[in-house]
Specification:
460 residues, two-stranded parallel ribbon, 15 helices
């Protein structure tokens, strides 16, 4: 009786998971095919900076860097940024909190030496939300503009641990006149001793910023911003602020993602730009360390899931009803609400079949396998999995070399484990929000790369 029950449950769980995994696999396959076919008609590597910088002079930028509990990284980040951007067409606005004396002191040391750095101390103790800190910086910019009688052309967003590229502002200057926002690729750095956890970000961004965002752009879908390495035209942020009082939504867990969709609703064109520096040959991108421990990665992924797939669904809806490409991409953003339970069931099915095999072995009977269309479905899913692995290996290999490409295969298992743990935490975060719980900046500890790693060329 027990053996029959285990067989039946394993059979039904396998079929349920297989059907929905096939749907998700086809979804991914379509994106890959669009990427491959359109790449044949678009320049694959991207434009050199020398070609796009013509006519880009004269633009002025305000760089917003929100910083809560960032005393360990903010000073080296600011000094590295100032060294890489020797011009005077920008100011770095660093947002701090009155109860974070260590970060204030670190920023003050740099601001005392370079007038391009503005130390901004908020009125409320931290942490609030990242968006709230960005709004504090916005108000500081308005005060400075009123005093100077001049406005900047765009606001650039960065985090306190980012390694900026020397040519970044030149790329923004070239594109911001004709686009509402410009997003550069993000290239995670693999932390020493964390090949699986921190390395899985490298794989996911190779897919997201190597293939998925270009597909979104070619479909004309909304372009979610990454919150770093992006420039937004100042007049558009003013329009948003005029509508709701502030350009960044302090009630959002993922204000960067939602800002990209808000810009689309305003009719602004957003560009994802891959450009290569002609001097170094490197991709103009933002580089940074991502969480290197399991708990930190789970916390970060949970915030992304809760903000994009759960709360973001409530907050941003589906956009214009006939905009099918945009609807498809938003659906992909939110499919984690179904993908994680299906993934969990798939792993449960493996365990159940193992238990079934053990029971049949003890009983001396032959286990009941899947037959007919069920077996064909599993074979189809296996083919989709091989394709997914192949695409990941190719994208990572082209961006980061074949050593990282080989690591991307076992890292897929690590990514699944992190996603499953994060999904449970994201659900509790979302339930807390529905109950009216407070929003807090659930950030992870950061560190800034050393000189050797910082200057490493990455041809991603």
């Amino acid at each position: 009786m027990m053996m029959a029950a285990v067989d039946a449950i394993a059979h039904e769980v396998t079929l349920f998971a297989a059907v929905f995994m096939a749907i998700g696999g086809i979804d991914d396959l379509l994106v890959d095919l669009i990427y491959i076919t359109t790449t044949l008609f678009f320049s694959g590597r991207g434009k050199p900076v020398a070609d796009i910088a013509e006519g880009a002079r004269g633009k002025r930028f305000a760089i917003f860097v929100p910083a809560w509990d960032e005393s360990a990284v903010i000073e080296p980040m600011l000094r590295a940024t100032l060294a890489r951007w020797p011009g005077s067409a920008y100011h770095l606005y660093v947002g701090t909190y009155p109860n974070d004396a260590a970060t204030i002191a670190a920023v003050a040391r740099v601001a005392g030496e370079d007038v391009r750095v503005r130390l901004v101390i908020g009125t409320h103790p931290g942490p609030t939300t990242k968006a709230d800190c960005l709004n504090t910086l916005w108000r500081a910019l308005l005060r400075d503009e009123a005093a100077a009688g001049a406005r900047v052309d765009a606001i650039v967003l960065h985090d306190a641990e980012d390694v900026v590229h020397p040519a970044e502002l030149r790329v923004f200057a070239a594109w911001i006149a004709t686009h509402g926002a410009v997003q550069l690729p993000v290239v995670p750095l693999v932390a020493p001793g964390s090949r699986l956890v921190s390395g899985h970000y490298l794989d996911e961004f190779a897919q997201a910023h190597g293939a998925t965002l270009p597909v979104r752009q070619r479909l004309g879908a909304g372009m979610p911003l990454a919150g770093v390495g992006c420039a937004i035209r100042r007049d558009l942020l003013q329009r948003i602020a005029d509508r709701r009082g502030a350009p960044f939504d302090a009630a959002s867990l993922t204000e960067d993602y939602e800002l990209g969709l808000t810009l689309r609703a305003l009719g602004a064109r957003c560009a994802f730009v891959r450009a290569f520096d002609t001097e170094s040959g490197s991709l103009v991108a933002v580089r940074a360390f991502f969480p290197a421990t399991l708990s930190a990665a789970v916390r970060q992924k949970a915030r992304w899931m809760a903000g994009i797939a759960l709360a973001g669904w409530d907050r941003t809806g589906w956009g214009r009803w006939r905009d099918l490409g945009d609807h498809w991409m938003r659906m992909r953003d939110r499919r984690v609400t179904l993908a994680m339970p299906v993934l969990a069931l798939a792993y449960c099915a493996l365990i159940l079949w193992g238990v079934s095999g053990a029971l049949h072995l003890v009983a001396g009977t032959a286990p009941h396998g899947l037959e007919g269309w069920a077996m064909q479905l599993l074979t189809f899913n296996a083919g989709l999995l091989v394709w997914r692995l192949l695409m990941r290996v190719l994208l990572v290999g082209c961006s980061h070399g074949w050593r990282e490409a080989a690591w991307s295969i076992p890292r897929m298992l690590a990514a699944n484990a992190i996603a499953l743990l994060a999904a449970r935490r994201a659900l509790w975060i979302y339930i807390g929000l529905l109950r009216g719980g407070p929003l807090r900046w659930d950030k992870t500890a950061h560190h800034f790369p050393g000189d050797a790693l910082e200057s490493r060329r990455t041809a991603a």
